[in-house]
Design a protein that fits this description.
alpha+beta
């Protein structure tokens, strides 16, 4: 099936030709799958929002290529006791409107996320903060109610961005940041436009203007790249499309091992899926190695945890679910789900966005679950509708990706703690386990990394046994670009930081 599709796709590319005009010389067009849900860095948690906002706003700390934290807006910090964090800020930072960025802006950003001034799922990550002081323009002091080992990570890029004091709930429509690019305009479901920020304290980007073009259809994204009417995309094409485009003389493919994780989540309050045996049966029915070969052309690695394997808290010592339809059938038999005259035990619905690979995954899963008597209905929606539904718990199953957030173990609290149901966090499946909550909270307050690792190992083992979600695979970071772009430095996180250093050939 895949080889026939590649031939058809290549034929389509050949017919398309290169008739479309290139974008203006100093404008780079990047195609993305969906509009960001919010460019307010306090609110947006989807991948497009966080990646674009990270170009507009600055965080206190910055993650380097090895996920270690480095100074950014904060030139240094000290921890005089487990409940006090003192940050010393740069004094040469200005927002794009020329206004200096000071400790008052950092304090306001944190306070507005915690006091309800804005409604945000990120509030849960700051729940251990008691209050924030700004004793002078260059100093921020965070006082905690209880120790929080994840605090520094939650103040780094992707998780946090400083907004001007006084920014209200409508800030996303006219965001003002201090990053290397400044916001110009946004048209929902069409485009976001950024320009080089002349007031930025960072090195000036080589790109003067970026247009993020929203193109929900993967084939159309590929054609835009092939024609030269788009310059770049990252992790937004099927493997077959990447393979076909790699043959084009005007395009180049950059790739490497990535940390972005594909997963399937269950509504654990659903009448069918609240039974652990049903969730385990679904895991055994999935032939993940075959899906990786056919859907991703081996540009992915099997995942047994949310955390990437290079992480200090990762463990592979968890319950495994190799492809085993016989075991899946036995679990469903034991759970009392008999087949009807058509061989169907029960029906489930799986929601996806309109992302092409998500829909293909759902269709493959539909075939594999049919073999164990589960009739799976696939329902695809544009991203904003899809995301609203899963946040409200209006689903039985859905598939999505963790984009960078799974590089810190605080992801377990954000995604599985029973206090983190939306809008306070991302426990969308409404999973509740008091023993897991206790482990997560103990690890989050411990200053002993060995103890934290021991706790997180147990957390991973519980999640693998109970399966509120299934970790599928870590996707390689794959970037396709026209050869008019140079100096591309791809990140394993699959973020948009390469736009900071990329240049445009004359």
């Amino acid at each position: 099936m895949c080889d026939r599709w590649v031939l058809a796709f290549c034929f389509t590319l050949g017919l398309a030709g290169c008739a479309s005009a290139r974008p203006p010389a100093q404008t780079v067009t990047m195609v993305i799958e969906s509009s960001p849900t919010s460019l307010d860095p306090r609110i947006g948690v989807d991948g497009q929002s966080e990646h674009i906002a990270s170009l507009i706003f600055d965080s206190l700390l910055h993650k380097n290529a090895h996920f270690a934290l480095e100074p950014w807006l904060a030139t240094s910090w000290d921890i005089p006791d487990p409940l006090t964090y003192r940050f010393h800020l740069r004094t040469d930072v200005h927002f794009q409107n020329g206004k200096p960025l000071t400790a008052a802006d950092v304090k306001y950003t944190l306070d507005s996320m915690r006091n309800g001034a804005v409604i945000t799922a990120k509030a849960g990550a700051l729940a251990r903060i008691d209050h924030v002081d700004a004793p002078d323009p260059a100093t921020v002091v965070i006082h905690l109610k209880q120790p929080d080992a994840a605090l520094l990570w939650n103040l780094s890029d992707g998780a946090f961005g400083v907004v001007p004091a006084g920014s209200g709930r409508d800030f996303a429509f006219h965001p003002v940041g201090s990053g290397p690019f400044r916001f110009v305009s946004q048209m929902q479901d069409d485009e976001v436009v950024l320009e080089r920020n002349e007031h930025s304290w960072q090195p000036a980007p080589g790109i003067a203007r970026i247009r993020f073009a929203v193109v929900p259809d993967a084939i159309t994204r590929a054609l835009e790249l092939e024609k030269g009417s788009a310059d770049v995309c990252i992790n937004c094409l099927t493997a077959d499309m990447v393979y076909a485009l790699s043959k084009r003389s005007n395009l180049q493919v950059e790739d490497g091992p990535g940390t972005n994780l594909n997963y399937i989540s269950f509504n654990t309050r659903d009448a069918v899926l609240r039974d652990i045996r049903v969730r385990q049966a679904i895991a055994y029915a999935m032939n993940r190695p075959l899906i990786i070969r056919s859907l991703w052309r081996d540009r992915a690695r099997l995942a047994e945890s949310l955390l990437p394997p290079q992480h200090w808290a990762w463990t592979g010592d968890v319950e495994q679910y190799p492809y085993d339809p016989a075991k899946a059938n036995a679990l469903l038999d034991a759970a009392g789900w008999t087949r009807d005259k058509e061989g169907i035990r029960f029906r489930l619905a799986m929601k996806t966005s309109t992302d092409e690979t998500s829909r293909l995954l759902a269709m493959i899963l539909q075939q594999q679950l049919r073999d164990i008597g589960i009739a799976l209905e696939v329902r695809s929606f544009e991203f904003a509708t899809f995301y609203a539904d899963i946040s409200k718990g209006a689903f039985q199953m859905y598939t999505l990706r963790w984009l960078g957030g799974n590089e810190d173990p605080d992801i377990f609290r954000y995604a599985y703690d029973s206090a983190m149901f939306p809008p306070h966090g991302a426990n969308r499946g409404r999973y509740a386990n008091p023993a897991l909550d206790a482990l997560i909270r103990e690890a989050g307050m411990s200053g002993d990394q060995a103890q934290r690792r021991a706790d997180y190992v147990k957390v991973q083992q519980i999640l693998a046994a109970q399966l509120p979600s299934i970790n599928l695979w870590y996707l390689d970071a794959v970037l396709v670009h026209t050869k008019r772009l140079a100096n591309i430095q791809i990140s394993s996180s699959g973020n948009f930081d390469f736009l900071r250093t990329a240049t445009v050939k004359p």
